[in-house]
Amino acid sequence: MPSRLQDELTRLVSAGVLRPHQAEALRAAAEADAAAPRAASSAARSGEGLEGGRPGDPPRVVSGAARSADGRGSPAGSGDGRSGAAGQSGSARGWERRPPPTAVHSSALTEVLGYIGGALLLGAVALLTLANWGEMGRAARISTGASAAIILLGTAGVLALLRRREQLSSALASLGCCVAGFATYVAIEGETGRVVGVAVALALAVLGVWWLAGSSLLVATFGILAVGVLVITADVLTPDTSTTTNSAGIAGTGFILVAFVMAMIGLVRDQVTAWSLAGAAMFSSSICWLVQERGEVMALAVGTAGPAALLVAYGRRHASAYAVVGCSILLVIWPISLYQLTNNVAGVAIGLVVASTALLLAVLLLTRRQRRLVE
Fold first, then answer.
1. Helix, strand or coil for residue 21?
2. Boundary-marking domain end, from 205, 237, 269
3. Distance between the two ends of the chain, CA-based, in angstroms?
4. DSSP annotation string for 272-317
5. 176 with 152: CB under 8 angstroms?
6. Domain count, the chain
7. Whole-model pTM above 0.85?
8. CB within 8 A of 345, min separation 6: which ones?
9. 147-166 mean pLDDT
10. How far apart are CA 221 and CA 208, in angstroms?
11. What is the pLDDT of residues 131-142, one digit of tens each?
Protein backbone atom coordinates (compact mmCIF):
# COMPACT_ATOMS: atom_id res chain seq x y z
CA MET A 1 0.00 0.00 0.00
CA PRO A 2 1.37 3.50 -0.81
CA SER A 3 2.84 5.34 2.11
CA ARG A 4 0.82 8.42 1.20
CA LEU A 5 -2.44 6.53 1.76
CA GLN A 6 -1.08 5.11 5.01
CA ASP A 7 -0.20 8.60 6.26
CA GLU A 8 -3.61 9.94 5.27
CA LEU A 9 -5.44 7.14 7.08
CA THR A 10 -3.28 7.67 10.18
CA ARG A 11 -4.08 11.39 10.12
CA LEU A 12 -7.82 10.76 9.80
CA VAL A 13 -7.77 8.29 12.70
CA SER A 14 -5.83 10.66 14.93
CA ALA A 15 -8.22 13.49 14.02
CA GLY A 16 -11.21 11.35 14.98
CA VAL A 17 -12.74 11.34 11.48
CA LEU A 18 -12.29 7.59 11.07
CA ARG A 19 -12.27 4.82 13.63
CA PRO A 20 -9.43 2.28 13.69
CA HIS A 21 -11.54 -0.57 12.31
CA GLN A 22 -12.76 1.62 9.43
CA ALA A 23 -9.20 2.60 8.55
CA GLU A 24 -8.18 -1.05 8.71
CA ALA A 25 -10.99 -2.00 6.30
CA LEU A 26 -9.94 0.70 3.84
CA ARG A 27 -6.30 -0.39 4.16
CA ALA A 28 -7.21 -4.02 3.42
CA ALA A 29 -9.31 -3.00 0.41
CA ALA A 30 -6.45 -0.93 -0.99
CA GLU A 31 -4.00 -3.81 -0.57
CA ALA A 32 -6.42 -6.19 -2.33
CA ASP A 33 -6.83 -3.76 -5.24
CA ALA A 34 -3.05 -3.39 -5.56
CA ALA A 35 -2.46 -7.15 -5.44
CA ALA A 36 -5.10 -8.07 -8.08
CA PRO A 37 -3.31 -6.68 -11.20
CA ARG A 38 -0.01 -8.25 -10.14
CA ALA A 39 -1.60 -11.66 -9.68
CA ALA A 40 -3.47 -11.41 -12.99
CA SER A 41 -0.30 -10.46 -14.91
CA SER A 42 1.68 -13.30 -13.29
CA ALA A 43 -1.10 -15.76 -14.21
CA ALA A 44 -1.05 -14.51 -17.81
CA ARG A 45 2.73 -14.89 -18.02
CA SER A 46 2.56 -18.44 -16.66
CA GLY A 47 -0.20 -19.28 -19.18
CA GLU A 48 1.96 -18.07 -22.06
CA GLY A 49 4.88 -20.19 -20.84
CA LEU A 50 2.72 -23.32 -20.80
CA GLU A 51 1.44 -22.66 -24.33
CA GLY A 52 4.65 -22.37 -26.25
CA GLY A 53 7.36 -20.71 -24.21
CA ARG A 54 9.59 -18.03 -25.64
CA PRO A 55 10.14 -17.80 -29.44
CA GLY A 56 13.63 -19.27 -29.40
CA ASP A 57 12.91 -22.21 -27.08
CA PRO A 58 12.50 -25.76 -28.46
CA PRO A 59 9.00 -27.20 -28.46
CA ARG A 60 7.96 -28.76 -25.19
CA VAL A 61 6.41 -32.21 -24.84
CA VAL A 62 2.94 -31.85 -23.40
CA SER A 63 1.51 -34.85 -21.62
CA GLY A 64 -1.90 -36.26 -22.37
CA ALA A 65 -3.25 -35.15 -19.02
CA ALA A 66 -2.10 -31.63 -19.74
CA ARG A 67 -3.64 -31.76 -23.25
CA SER A 68 -6.91 -33.05 -21.88
CA ALA A 69 -6.91 -30.34 -19.23
CA ASP A 70 -6.12 -27.81 -21.94
CA GLY A 71 -8.97 -29.00 -24.17
CA ARG A 72 -6.80 -29.99 -27.18
CA GLY A 73 -5.94 -33.67 -26.56
CA SER A 74 -9.37 -35.31 -26.77
CA PRO A 75 -12.09 -35.56 -29.41
CA ALA A 76 -14.35 -33.58 -27.18
CA GLY A 77 -11.83 -30.82 -27.16
CA SER A 78 -14.38 -28.21 -28.02
CA GLY A 79 -16.44 -28.99 -24.95
CA ASP A 80 -13.39 -29.11 -22.75
CA GLY A 81 -12.20 -25.90 -24.27
CA ARG A 82 -15.48 -24.29 -23.41
CA SER A 83 -15.24 -25.55 -19.84
CA GLY A 84 -11.66 -24.28 -19.65
CA ALA A 85 -12.78 -20.91 -20.97
CA ALA A 86 -15.55 -20.87 -18.40
CA GLY A 87 -13.02 -21.61 -15.66
CA GLN A 88 -10.74 -18.84 -16.89
CA SER A 89 -13.62 -16.39 -17.03
CA GLY A 90 -14.63 -17.46 -13.51
CA SER A 91 -11.10 -16.85 -12.24
CA ALA A 92 -11.02 -13.53 -14.05
CA ARG A 93 -14.23 -12.57 -12.31
CA GLY A 94 -12.60 -13.56 -9.04
CA TRP A 95 -9.88 -10.96 -9.64
CA GLU A 96 -12.38 -8.19 -10.22
CA ARG A 97 -12.37 -5.39 -7.72
CA ARG A 98 -14.64 -5.91 -4.83
CA PRO A 99 -16.22 -2.92 -3.13
CA PRO A 100 -14.75 -2.14 0.31
CA PRO A 101 -16.90 -3.09 3.28
CA THR A 102 -19.27 -0.31 4.17
CA ALA A 103 -19.11 1.02 7.71
CA VAL A 104 -22.33 0.94 9.68
CA HIS A 105 -23.10 4.46 10.89
CA SER A 106 -25.27 5.00 13.92
CA SER A 107 -28.47 6.92 13.62
CA ALA A 108 -27.90 10.60 14.29
CA LEU A 109 -31.43 11.00 15.64
CA THR A 110 -30.91 8.29 18.24
CA GLU A 111 -27.59 9.83 19.30
CA VAL A 112 -29.17 13.27 19.69
CA LEU A 113 -32.13 11.91 21.64
CA GLY A 114 -29.77 10.07 23.96
CA TYR A 115 -27.73 13.20 24.63
CA ILE A 116 -30.88 15.22 25.24
CA GLY A 117 -32.21 12.55 27.61
CA GLY A 118 -29.04 12.52 29.67
CA ALA A 119 -28.89 16.31 29.78
CA LEU A 120 -32.55 16.56 30.82
CA LEU A 121 -32.02 14.02 33.59
CA LEU A 122 -29.00 15.89 34.89
CA GLY A 123 -30.87 19.19 34.63
CA ALA A 124 -33.84 17.76 36.53
CA VAL A 125 -31.56 16.54 39.31
CA ALA A 126 -29.84 19.93 39.46
CA LEU A 127 -33.13 21.87 39.57
CA LEU A 128 -34.60 19.53 42.18
CA THR A 129 -31.51 19.85 44.28
CA LEU A 130 -31.36 23.64 44.08
CA ALA A 131 -35.07 24.16 44.67
CA ASN A 132 -35.55 21.72 47.53
CA TRP A 133 -32.09 21.40 49.02
CA GLY A 134 -33.01 23.13 52.25
CA GLU A 135 -36.21 21.15 52.68
CA MET A 136 -34.83 17.74 51.71
CA GLY A 137 -33.51 15.46 54.39
CA ARG A 138 -30.14 13.75 54.22
CA ALA A 139 -31.67 10.47 53.08
CA ALA A 140 -33.60 12.20 50.28
CA ARG A 141 -30.47 13.96 49.07
CA ILE A 142 -28.47 10.74 49.00
CA SER A 143 -31.23 8.76 47.27
CA THR A 144 -31.71 11.46 44.61
CA GLY A 145 -28.03 11.57 43.67
CA ALA A 146 -27.57 7.82 43.87
CA SER A 147 -30.63 7.14 41.71
CA ALA A 148 -29.45 9.52 39.00
CA ALA A 149 -25.95 8.00 39.03
CA ILE A 150 -27.29 4.43 38.84
CA ILE A 151 -29.60 5.28 35.93
CA LEU A 152 -26.87 6.98 33.94
CA LEU A 153 -24.18 4.39 34.61
CA GLY A 154 -26.59 1.47 34.14
CA THR A 155 -27.77 2.78 30.76
CA ALA A 156 -24.19 3.33 29.65
CA GLY A 157 -23.23 -0.19 30.75
CA VAL A 158 -26.15 -1.80 28.89
CA LEU A 159 -25.31 0.06 25.68
CA ALA A 160 -21.66 -0.93 26.03
CA LEU A 161 -22.52 -4.62 26.55
CA LEU A 162 -24.76 -4.54 23.47
CA ARG A 163 -21.92 -2.84 21.54
CA ARG A 164 -24.23 -0.13 20.28
CA ARG A 165 -24.06 3.67 20.45
CA GLU A 166 -20.48 3.90 21.67
CA GLN A 167 -20.45 7.69 21.76
CA LEU A 168 -23.78 7.81 23.55
CA SER A 169 -22.71 5.25 26.14
CA SER A 170 -19.48 7.13 26.85
CA ALA A 171 -21.37 10.42 27.22
CA LEU A 172 -23.86 8.89 29.66
CA ALA A 173 -20.99 7.27 31.56
CA SER A 174 -19.19 10.59 31.87
CA LEU A 175 -22.32 12.22 33.32
CA GLY A 176 -22.81 9.25 35.65
CA CYS A 177 -19.25 9.56 36.99
CA CYS A 178 -19.80 13.21 37.92
CA VAL A 179 -23.19 12.53 39.53
CA ALA A 180 -21.76 9.58 41.48
CA GLY A 181 -19.02 11.80 42.87
CA PHE A 182 -21.58 14.39 43.88
CA ALA A 183 -23.75 11.74 45.55
CA THR A 184 -20.71 10.51 47.51
CA TYR A 185 -19.99 14.05 48.68
CA VAL A 186 -23.61 14.44 49.81
CA ALA A 187 -23.45 11.15 51.70
CA ILE A 188 -20.22 11.92 53.59
CA GLU A 189 -20.19 15.76 53.67
CA GLY A 190 -17.38 18.02 54.81
CA GLU A 191 -13.77 18.04 53.63
CA THR A 192 -13.63 14.26 53.72
CA GLY A 193 -16.74 14.07 51.55
CA ARG A 194 -15.18 16.31 48.91
CA VAL A 195 -11.98 14.26 48.74
CA VAL A 196 -13.80 10.91 48.70
CA GLY A 197 -16.30 12.17 46.13
CA VAL A 198 -13.51 13.18 43.79
CA ALA A 199 -11.80 9.82 44.31
CA VAL A 200 -15.01 7.88 43.50
CA ALA A 201 -15.72 9.95 40.41
CA LEU A 202 -12.12 9.60 39.21
CA ALA A 203 -12.14 5.81 39.73
CA LEU A 204 -15.34 5.47 37.71
CA ALA A 205 -13.97 7.73 34.97
CA VAL A 206 -10.74 5.71 34.71
CA LEU A 207 -12.78 2.50 34.47
CA GLY A 208 -14.91 4.07 31.74
CA VAL A 209 -11.87 5.24 29.76
CA TRP A 210 -10.39 1.74 29.95
CA TRP A 211 -13.64 0.04 28.92
CA LEU A 212 -15.44 2.45 26.57
CA ALA A 213 -12.56 4.62 25.30
CA GLY A 214 -14.85 7.54 24.44
CA SER A 215 -13.70 11.12 24.00
CA SER A 216 -16.43 12.45 26.32
CA LEU A 217 -14.96 10.33 29.11
CA LEU A 218 -11.62 12.02 28.53
CA VAL A 219 -13.33 15.38 29.06
CA ALA A 220 -14.96 14.07 32.24
CA THR A 221 -11.61 12.74 33.47
CA PHE A 222 -9.99 16.13 32.90
CA GLY A 223 -12.80 17.92 34.74
CA ILE A 224 -12.63 15.54 37.70
CA LEU A 225 -8.85 15.88 37.89
CA ALA A 226 -9.17 19.68 37.81
CA VAL A 227 -11.72 19.64 40.64
CA GLY A 228 -9.47 17.22 42.51
CA VAL A 229 -6.54 19.62 42.25
CA LEU A 230 -8.61 22.45 43.67
CA VAL A 231 -10.08 20.29 46.45
CA ILE A 232 -6.72 18.87 47.52
CA THR A 233 -5.11 22.29 47.39
CA ALA A 234 -7.84 23.93 49.47
CA ASP A 235 -8.65 21.14 51.96
CA VAL A 236 -5.42 19.17 52.32
CA LEU A 237 -2.31 21.12 51.31
CA THR A 238 -3.22 24.68 52.29
CA PRO A 239 -2.84 25.65 55.96
CA ASP A 240 -5.62 27.62 57.60
CA THR A 241 -3.33 30.63 58.01
CA SER A 242 -2.28 30.71 54.35
CA THR A 243 -3.76 33.14 51.85
CA THR A 244 -5.18 32.38 48.41
CA THR A 245 -2.30 34.03 46.58
CA ASN A 246 0.23 31.83 48.38
CA SER A 247 -1.62 28.57 47.64
CA ALA A 248 -2.23 29.31 43.95
CA GLY A 249 1.23 28.00 43.08
CA ILE A 250 0.33 24.62 44.59
CA ALA A 251 -2.70 24.43 42.32
CA GLY A 252 -0.53 25.46 39.36
CA THR A 253 1.81 22.58 40.05
CA GLY A 254 -1.15 20.24 40.32
CA PHE A 255 -2.42 21.31 36.91
CA ILE A 256 1.00 20.55 35.42
CA LEU A 257 0.62 17.02 36.76
CA VAL A 258 -2.87 16.87 35.22
CA ALA A 259 -1.37 17.87 31.86
CA PHE A 260 1.19 15.08 32.15
CA VAL A 261 -1.53 12.52 32.95
CA MET A 262 -3.65 13.60 29.98
CA ALA A 263 -0.61 13.44 27.69
CA MET A 264 0.04 9.85 28.80
CA ILE A 265 -3.62 8.93 28.25
CA GLY A 266 -3.34 10.33 24.74
CA LEU A 267 -0.78 7.66 23.88
CA VAL A 268 -3.41 4.92 24.24
CA ARG A 269 -6.73 6.71 23.62
CA ASP A 270 -8.04 9.59 21.48
CA GLN A 271 -4.83 11.53 21.03
CA VAL A 272 -6.27 14.77 19.69
CA THR A 273 -8.76 15.17 22.54
CA ALA A 274 -6.35 14.09 25.27
CA TRP A 275 -3.48 16.31 24.15
CA SER A 276 -5.79 19.28 23.65
CA LEU A 277 -7.02 18.81 27.22
CA ALA A 278 -3.39 18.62 28.34
CA GLY A 279 -2.93 22.05 26.75
CA ALA A 280 -5.99 23.28 28.64
CA ALA A 281 -4.40 22.00 31.86
CA MET A 282 -1.24 23.98 31.09
CA PHE A 283 -3.41 27.06 30.53
CA SER A 284 -5.06 26.53 33.94
CA SER A 285 -1.64 26.19 35.52
CA SER A 286 -0.54 29.48 33.97
CA ILE A 287 -3.62 31.22 35.35
CA CYS A 288 -2.85 29.87 38.82
CA TRP A 289 0.74 31.09 38.60
CA LEU A 290 -0.50 34.53 37.59
CA VAL A 291 -2.50 34.66 40.84
CA GLN A 292 0.50 33.47 42.84
CA GLU A 293 2.70 36.22 44.27
CA ARG A 294 5.73 36.79 41.99
CA GLY A 295 4.61 33.92 39.78
CA GLU A 296 4.66 35.80 36.47
CA VAL A 297 7.87 34.17 35.26
CA MET A 298 6.54 30.70 35.99
CA ALA A 299 3.25 31.56 34.30
CA LEU A 300 5.15 32.72 31.23
CA ALA A 301 7.27 29.56 31.16
CA VAL A 302 4.30 27.22 31.55
CA GLY A 303 2.24 29.25 29.07
CA THR A 304 5.05 28.87 26.53
CA ALA A 305 5.96 25.22 27.07
CA GLY A 306 2.39 23.97 26.61
CA PRO A 307 1.70 25.76 23.31
CA ALA A 308 5.18 24.84 22.02
CA ALA A 309 4.45 21.14 22.57
CA LEU A 310 1.05 21.49 20.88
CA LEU A 311 2.52 23.28 17.87
CA VAL A 312 5.16 20.59 17.48
CA ALA A 313 2.38 17.99 17.60
CA TYR A 314 0.49 19.97 14.98
CA GLY A 315 3.52 19.94 12.70
CA ARG A 316 3.63 16.14 12.89
CA ARG A 317 -0.06 15.18 13.09
CA HIS A 318 -1.70 18.13 11.27
CA ALA A 319 -4.63 18.21 13.72
CA SER A 320 -6.09 21.72 13.74
CA ALA A 321 -7.15 21.43 17.41
CA TYR A 322 -3.49 21.57 18.46
CA ALA A 323 -2.92 24.85 16.64
CA VAL A 324 -6.15 26.41 17.95
CA VAL A 325 -5.48 25.52 21.59
CA GLY A 326 -1.79 26.45 21.43
CA CYS A 327 -2.35 29.85 19.81
CA SER A 328 -5.20 30.64 22.20
CA ILE A 329 -2.97 30.01 25.21
CA LEU A 330 -0.24 32.24 23.79
CA LEU A 331 -2.65 35.07 23.02
CA VAL A 332 -3.97 35.07 26.60
CA ILE A 333 -0.97 34.23 28.79
CA TRP A 334 1.77 36.23 27.09
CA PRO A 335 0.12 39.71 27.27
CA ILE A 336 -1.02 39.26 30.88
CA SER A 337 2.32 37.88 32.06
CA LEU A 338 4.33 40.55 30.29
CA TYR A 339 2.13 43.31 31.65
CA GLN A 340 2.54 42.04 35.21
CA LEU A 341 6.30 41.77 34.71
CA THR A 342 6.90 45.15 33.06
CA ASN A 343 3.83 47.09 34.22
CA ASN A 344 4.07 48.84 30.87
CA VAL A 345 2.12 48.49 27.63
CA ALA A 346 5.28 49.06 25.58
CA GLY A 347 6.92 46.07 27.23
CA VAL A 348 3.90 43.96 26.33
CA ALA A 349 4.15 45.06 22.69
CA ILE A 350 7.87 44.25 22.54
CA GLY A 351 7.29 40.85 24.06
CA LEU A 352 4.54 40.07 21.58
CA VAL A 353 6.80 41.08 18.69
CA VAL A 354 9.49 38.72 19.96
CA ALA A 355 6.96 35.91 20.36
CA SER A 356 5.52 36.44 16.86
CA THR A 357 9.01 36.44 15.35
CA ALA A 358 9.83 33.16 17.06
CA LEU A 359 6.60 31.62 15.79
CA LEU A 360 7.22 32.77 12.22
CA LEU A 361 10.73 31.32 12.30
CA ALA A 362 9.32 28.04 13.56
CA VAL A 363 6.80 28.04 10.70
CA LEU A 364 9.59 28.60 8.14
CA LEU A 365 11.68 25.80 9.59
CA LEU A 366 8.76 23.38 9.57
CA THR A 367 7.91 24.33 5.98
CA ARG A 368 11.46 23.68 4.80
CA ARG A 369 11.53 20.36 6.58
CA GLN A 370 8.28 19.26 4.95
CA ARG A 371 9.57 20.25 1.51
CA ARG A 372 12.75 18.23 2.02
CA LEU A 373 10.73 15.21 3.07
CA VAL A 374 8.51 15.51 -0.01
CA GLU A 375 11.49 15.88 -2.34
1. helix
2. 237
3. 20
4. HHHHHHHHHHHHHHHHHHHHSTT-HHHHHHHHHHHHHHHHHHHHHH
5. yes
6. 3
7. no
8. 339
9. 83
10. 9
11. 776 777 888 888
